């Protein structure tokens, strides 16, 4: 019956607005009915754009992302005040009609004919309009949206037909729920939940009568009745809604009068969109989004994936542990204070044996006015390809200096050589024709004053003069002696084992799309290539996990708007990437850094088993401590994150403290220790697994053999002749010396 009545009405509309002036009403009506019959009746309801939430591991909010601030809620989570208010003011016959209201249309025609203005769209028709518009926006065709005042009769008839079809498919409550979730209340709030939060800092289920009446009044003109800009208009419109609610029996006179007298009482909660407004860990948030937006599981193209993130209502659950993130952020900020002069600090923590990134912090911000004058979009902790939301990405790593020396130690141990074996750390000359043992590639570079003119670097240097003597490999690492690291490399059966150890630890260049480090170049043994702090933390986590390497992960689960799991990053671990005994022996040596070596310069002590390595580049402007307890591995950085050779870390004042020279143990070290004092207790902080004794003591070491031509040699070196000369540009003078 409703359909027949509407057909007659449509005929009348078409006769008056579409047909020739001389056409008869019957003929025009007949033509309009045929036109109406030809229109589609099935509405495809595409879910409207919703807010994506990025969450920490405990469920706390990191950030929200959206094109339209909307969060769908079921009708049961909308207050009855809100449901009654919208029906009363927009479509009081909602529960009586079948999608369109013939009486309303005739009433509107009568009013319009008398020079007035009267709308006739039902809530169902309004819902259809919003669904069609949202579908255009989702397709990137927002410019095709036709505003109500510009709609043709054909547009109106199409919406009527779809409204009738929708009423045959969905219940009244389903339609009301869909309408209240899709309709815009403000440019900052789409749907009733977002509107309740924005205007009143309430959930939709908790809206009281005057609040609900105000929101119901907004849908007629969100800009015109905006209470933040036009409070008098908003109150007048609210009271009109209350009048309608009284008229149609939803409230009594006492409720009406009390609500009319109620103050506006806004409690604004403006939405913050994007990682730059993150409640915690903004750079980690960028990193997470990069992982999603580069994963084909979330869309065929990059554009599809970005759209899904910003409008799909996803819930992205991450590995971030707020118990660690808070102290990490506080610590990096405290290290340099609010005026760091672009000296960067960072901390990143990985859980050994899982690869989970638990904390990621740095002392800059993405926007001005957030507590520091160091503003940058660069992420200090990750590779250049691993940051999202800006064209800059991560800084691509920094020179790790002596924190790379444990790689040579791992190669030494992998060949079954003990940590207590003595090597000739007095040797400073490695000429161009030095006979390195290598099976995979040619070793390049040389250290020899006599061959500088042929491409060699000056004689190998330590940071202090008193360490050019034979010493154990263990002491060489603990004291961070460059010449001991080279002597260890020279004593290997295969120099290529260093590269293999680096690969097993997942070490790669931070600024070259993940390319492997080139450890056949001698200077790079001392940390000459840029590596990201996340990569360094994860490499040391492999030592910590008895040789099990795990790919770093940041996302545990991704759910769609309906709560269905659609993705996440599974743990990907490789047992025996390093032999367990090798990792255990390396840890045993790195514990000496804390108790006997360069770590002694760090005044703060954890009081639980820990291991670490300090590092400093040759300009003293990139300094590190990378260390771990049984359950946490953390890289701490201080320096110039932008790899400038012009800014030296010498005669430098940082946060009121003057440093004649900056070393890894001076700023990055205390930062690591103070942070780990807050963090370690939440995870395993017991004893490390004991190393095999043969990798500690081994057999008695023989005396160093006679050197080949060109200078003295390290222990176990083959006779001269092995490799042809190799020429290379000078490498860094040192990788940290004792730093």
Automatic annotation (TrEMBL):
Q: Where is the composition biased (Low complexity)?
A: 717-732
An example of a Pfam family matching this protein is: Transpeptidase
Keywords, sorted A to Z: Carboxypeptidase, Glycosyltransferase, Hydrolase, Multifunctional enzyme, Protease, Signal, Transferase
Name the source's superkingdom: Bacteria
* SUPFAM superfamilies tied to this protein: beta-lactamase/transpeptidase-like, Lysozyme-like
* UniProt xrefs under Gene3D superfamilies: Biosynthetic peptidoglycan transglycosylase-like, DD-peptidase/beta-lactamase superfamily
In this chain the Glycosyl transferase family domain maps to 59-245
Q: Which reaction does it catalyse?
A: Preferential cleavage: (Ac)2-L-Lys-D-Ala-|-D-Ala. Also transpeptidation of peptidyl-alanyl moieties that are N-acyl substituents of D-alanine; [GlcNAc-(1->4)-Mur2Ac(oyl-L-Ala-gamma-D-Glu-L-Lys-D-Ala-D-Ala)](n)-di-trans,octa-cis-undecaprenyl diphosphate + beta-D-GlcNAc-(1->4)-Mur2Ac(oyl-L-Ala-gamma-D-Glu-L-Lys-D-Ala-D-Ala)-di-trans,octa-cis-undecaprenyl diphosphate = [GlcNAc-(1->4)-Mur2Ac(oyl-L-Ala-gamma-D-Glu-L-Lys-D-Ala-D-Ala)](n+1)-di-trans,octa-cis-undecaprenyl diphosphate + di-trans,octa-cis-undecaprenyl diphosphate + H(+)
The record's region (Disordered) falls at: 691-739
Domain Penicillin-binding protein transpeptidase intervals? 457-630
Q: Where is the signal peptide?
A: 1-28
| Annotated protein name in UniProt | Transglycosylase domain-containing protein
Source organism (scientific name): Sinomonas terrae
């Amino acid at each position: 019956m409703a359909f027949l009545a509407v057909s007659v009405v449509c005929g009348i509309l078409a006769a008056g607005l579409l047909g020739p002036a001389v056409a008869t009403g019957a003929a025009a009506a007949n033509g309009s009915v045929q036109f109406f019959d030809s229109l589609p009746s099935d509405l495809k309801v595409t879910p409207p754009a919703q807010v994506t939430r990025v969450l920490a591991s405990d469920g706390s909010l990191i950030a929200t992302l959206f094109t339209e601030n909307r969060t769908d809620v079921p009708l049961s989570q909308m207050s009855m005040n809100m449901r009654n208010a919208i029906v009363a003011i927009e479509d009081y016959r909602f529960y009586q009609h079948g999608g369109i209201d013939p009486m309303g249309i005739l009433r509107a025609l009568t009013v319009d004919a008398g020079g007035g203005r009267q709308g006739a769209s039902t809530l169902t028709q309004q819902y259809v309009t919003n669904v069609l518009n949202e579908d255009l926006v989702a397709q990137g065709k927002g410019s095709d949206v036709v505003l109500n005042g510009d709609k043709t009769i054909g547009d109106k008839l199409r919406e009527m037909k779809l409204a009738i079809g929708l009423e045959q498919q969905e219940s009244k409550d389903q339609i009301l729920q869909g309408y209240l979730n899709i309709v815009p209340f403000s440019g900052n709030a789409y749907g009733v939940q977002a509107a309740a939060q924005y205007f009143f800092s309430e959930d939709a289920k908790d809206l009281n009568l005057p609040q609900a009446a105000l929101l119901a009044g907004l849908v007629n003109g969100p800009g015109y009745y905006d209470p933040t800009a036009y409070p008098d208009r908003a109150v007048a419109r609210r009271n009109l809604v209350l009048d309608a609610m009284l008229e149609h029996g939803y409230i009594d006179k006492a409720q009406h009068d009390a609500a009319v007298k109620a103050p506006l009482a806004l409690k604004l909660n403006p939405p913050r969109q994007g990682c730059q407004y993150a409640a915690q860990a903004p750079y980690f948030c960028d990193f997470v989004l990069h992982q999603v937006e580069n994963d084909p599981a979330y869309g065929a193209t990059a554009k599809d994936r970005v759209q899904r993130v910003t409008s799909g209502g996803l819930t992205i659950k991450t590995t971030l542990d707020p118990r660690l993130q808070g102290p990490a952020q506080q610590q990096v900020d405290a290290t340099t204070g609010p005026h760091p002069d672009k000296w960067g600090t960072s901390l990143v923590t990985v859980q050994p044996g899982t690869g989970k990134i638990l904390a990621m912090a740095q002392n800059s911000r993405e926007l001005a006015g957030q507590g520091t004058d160091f503003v940058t979009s660069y992420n200090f902790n990750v590779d250049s390809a691993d940051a999202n939301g800006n064209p800059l990405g991560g800084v691509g790593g920094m020179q790790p200096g002596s924190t790379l020396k444990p790689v040579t130690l791992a190669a030494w141990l992998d060949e079954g050589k003990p940590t207590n074996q003595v090597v000739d750390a007095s040797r400073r000359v490695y000429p161009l024709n030095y006979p390195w043992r290598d099976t995979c590639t040619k070793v390049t570079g040389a250290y020899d004053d006599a061959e500088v003119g042929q491409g060699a670097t000056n004689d190998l240097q330590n940071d202090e003069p008193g360490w050019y003597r034979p010493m154990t490999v263990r002491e060489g690492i603990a004291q961070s002696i460059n010449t001991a690291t080279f002597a260890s490399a020279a004593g290997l059966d295969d120099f290529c084992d260093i590269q293999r150890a680096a690969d097993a630890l997942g070490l790669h260049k931070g600024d070259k799309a993940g390319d492997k480090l080139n450890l056949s170049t001698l200077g790079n043994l001392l940390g000459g290539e840029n590596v990201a702090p996340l990569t360094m933390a994860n490499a040391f986590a492999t030592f910590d996990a008895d040789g099990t390497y795990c790919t770093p992960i940041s996302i545990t689960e991704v759910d769609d708007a309906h709560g269905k799991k659609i993705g996440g990053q599974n743990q990907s671990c490789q047992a025996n990437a390093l032999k367990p005994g090798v990792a255990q022996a390396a840890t045993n040596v790195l514990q000496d850094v804390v108790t006997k070596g360069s770590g002694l310069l760090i005044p703060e002590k954890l009081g639980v088993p820990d291991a670490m390595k300090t590092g400093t580049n040759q300009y003293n402007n990139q300094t590190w401590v990378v260390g771990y307890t049984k359950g946490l591995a953390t890289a701490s950085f201080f320096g110039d994150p932008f790899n400038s050779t012009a800014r030296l870390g010498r005669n430098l004042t940082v946060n009121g403290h003057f440093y004649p020279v900056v070393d890894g143990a001076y700023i990055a070290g205390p930062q690591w220790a103070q942070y780990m004092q807050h963090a370690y207790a939440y995870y395993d902080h017991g004893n490390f697994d004991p190393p095999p004794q043969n990798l500690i003591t081994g057999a008695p070491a023989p005396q160093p053999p006679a050197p080949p031509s060109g200078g003295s040699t390290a222990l176990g070196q083959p006779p001269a002749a092995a490799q042809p000369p190799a020429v290379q540009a000078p490498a860094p003078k040192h990788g940290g010396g004792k730093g």
